[in-house]
Amino acid sequence: MRLRIDLAYDGTDFHGWAAQPGLRTVQGVLEEWIPRVLRLAYTPQLVVAGRTDAGVHARAQVCHLDLDGDDDRSAELVRRLRRVLPPDVVVSSVRPAPRGFDARFSAVWRRYCYRLVDAGFAPDPLLRNHVTQVRHAIDVDTLNAGANTLLGLRDFAPFCKPRDGATTIRELRELSSHRRPDGVVEVWLQADAFCHSMVRSLVGALTAVASGQRNLAWLETTAERGVRAPDVQVMPARGLTLEAVGYPADDRLAARALEARATRTLPAETGDDA
Question: How far apart are the first and last CA of the chain?
Fold first, then answer.
């Protein structure tokens, strides 16, 4: 039986999501406890919607696992995990997954928020692990003007750390910012998927423009490079939180998973958006 797990975690003391020998990771902690609380002779492998890096947080992460047999052990699993998991990771729900559900490939969008505080505002020490402090003043209107030039379907290679065999073509559907009453600037991003370090690199580029260190012409030129841009700063992980993951209707889950597994290309290159 396939189970869907919804969870949240403070990424401060984790070396990211993915299990790594000798390192504390979110996947590693869960895969340590799940077979123990269910008394399994095997370790179910978790498949996640978004593999967060070290120090990145998640308010609404989604993963799935497969258990042998047809017994629904979801209520038992969530109850027992809440008793044993450390306080920086919380399972909010476990339920049987609909037919065709894949936590990674069935997702149609991921939504992140990057939070920072700039010059002129005193940072709240209680938020130090969730908000990044920058030295220069940020003009939110300028940041949004730059953000508007990056929306849509395009190759985001200039803002991604390359991985063999992975496409950098993404559809960025939302990129906007606002300043909260306490001075914290929130940058919200939503896309079908994100490449490695894409969110933090986009925020780094936009912060450079919004602080006057770069101009919009530089941003537009950088976005058209087609390869990783070495002069784009990757912002610190602590300011980034995965806020939500979206899925289609149940009868579209399997089809969406097939679409997501296909290698994506730009329409101008092939005439067909995979």
Answer: 30
Please give the positions annotated as active site: 53
∠ CA(222), CA(227), CA(231), 5° rounding? Answer: 50
Place of tokens 């308010």: 59
Per residue in 236-263, is it b (16+ CB within 10 Å) or e — as a string? bbbbbbbbbbebbeeeebbebbebbeee
CATH topology classification for 2-96: Alpha-Beta Plaits (3.30.70)
Please, what's the b/e burial string for 24-40 (b: 16 or more CB within 10 A of its CB; e: otherwise)?
A: ebbbbbbbebbeebeee
pLDDT in tens, 122-172: 889 999 999 999 999 999 999 999 999 999 999 999 999 888 878 899 999
Fold match flag (2-96 vs 109-246): yes
pLDDT in tens, 163-219: 887 889 999 999 999 999 999 999 999 999 999 999 999 999 999 999 999 999 999
Query: Could you tell me which of 48, 1, 2 has the C-alpha nearest to residue 26?
Result: 48
Q: Report the amino acid identity of residue 64.
A: H
Q: What is the pTM of this model?
A: 0.93
For domain 109-246, say whether CATH 3.30.420.40 is its number.
no
Rounded Cα gap, residues 146 and 177, in angstroms? 11
**Domains of the chain, residue spans:** 2-96, 109-246
